[in-house]
Each structure stands twice: as C-alpha cells, then as structure tokens.
Amino acid sequence: MIAPMTNELGWMLDEVLKVPEARHAILLSADGMLRAHSADIGRDDAERLAAGLSGVQSISRSTAEFCGSATAPWRQTLIEFAHGYVFLVAAGQGAHLAVSTGEDVDMEAVTYRMHKLVDRLGKELTSPARQDTGSRA
Fold first, then answer.
1. Do residues 103 and 84 touch, judged by C-beta distance below 8 A?
2. What pTM was computed for the model?
3. How far is residue 81's CA from residue 53's CA, in Å, rounded to a whole number?
4. Torsion angle of C-alpha atoms 10, 48, 5, 9, degrees rounded to 10
5. In degrees rounded to 5, what are phi and psi of residue 101?
6. Residue 46 φ then ψ, to 5°
7. Are 85 and 101 in contact, with CB atoms under 8 Å apart?
8. How many alpha carbons fall within 13 Å on the CB side of residue 75?
9. Predicted confidence pLDDT, tens digits, the chain (137 residues)
10. DSSP H helical segments within 17-79, as ranges?
C-alpha cells in the first residue's frame, strides 16, 4: 500500500515562488507521482500536472542525441506559452521540480531559485525507483 502524500516539503516549494510572476511549484517523481506542491495549487491539479510533466521530461530526455550525445543526461526543459512559462529541472535521482510563471518573469531568478532549492534539499528530493510490491504466488 502506498502511504498518502503529506506534502511535508510544500513549504520549501513556496520559497521558489518569491520571484515576482512565479505562480505554482510541484515536485514529482520520474514516474509522475506527486511528491509535494506549493500552497497555491490544489492537490488534484498538482497530481494531474505531475503526470503530464513526467511525460514532458521523458520526451525531452529522448531527444538528447539532437544535442550531440544520446547518453547526455537531461537537466532542464522550458516550455513557453502565450502568457507564461513552465520550468522543469532535474531534482535528484528520479525527481523533478516544476515551476509555472507569468510571461514577465525574471527567468534567471526563477532558475537560480530552483537550482538553489534542489541543492538545499539534497537527498530529500531523490525518488528511488518503485519496487515490485506484488507477491509471488
């Protein structure tokens, strides 16, 4: 059985949102499970977005050879919309941090805060691969 998410790291994600125009932040595992979310986004929306952003990361990772090496590790993806951005960064083994912003955000300030948060949390942000919990009968 999977324990319910307690959002213990949510308050730390709120720190990233101190940049003007920053809107929401979520921490997700590589397989799309929500690990934590900022206070200003509901859990249901955060879970749905975590699943989608996991797919974005996977697609981004699959294009590494376009940059010269198929084995180069993925680090970051930026998605631009008419009214804002989504920043998605690696946040340790099997974990990703995503932040949404408005269109007039200081992009350098957001990525700086995101990387500082990843550094600060260290092992708190790692998500080990899921283990097979099924029984052999």
1. yes
2. 0.83
3. 15
4. -20
5. -140, 170
6. -65, -40
7. yes
8. 5
9. 344 567 888 898 998 999 999 999 999 998 999 999 999 999 999 999 999 999 999 899 888 889 888 888 888 999 999 999 999 999 988 899 999 999 999 999 999 999 999 988 775 654 455 555 554 54
10. 43-61
